[in-house]
Design a protein that fits this description.
This protein is an alpha+beta fold and 71 residues long. It is built from 3 helices and 2 strands. It has a two-stranded antiparallel ribbon with strand order 1-2. A hairpin with a 5-residue loop joins strand 1 (29-35) and strand 2.
Length: 71
């Protein structure tokens, strides 16, 4: 079905993944900007949800977009 294929293509698009991550982190995450011990700007975020499917999707999208140190 063409409609289903279009939906699947959108979900595999990096812009969609970035938007999903922004919404998830702002909605359910905790962001903190600070200076590290060397004086460099750093950002840390914590993301904790009971919904394991959402957690798995966030981890997968972070990995797909080459974010490091996601543990």
């Amino acid at each position: 079905c063409e409609i289903l294929n279009n939906i699947l293509n959108i979900a595999n698009n990096n812009d969609y993944k970035i938007g999903y991550l922004i919404s998830a982190i702002l909605g359910d995450g905790n962001l903190k900007a600070y200076k590290d011990k060397h004086g460099y700007d750093a950002v840390r975020f914590r993301f904790v949800v009971k919904d394991q499917e959402m957690n798995n999707r966030v981890e997968q999208y972070l990995s797909d977009l080459n974010f490091k140190n996601i543990n």
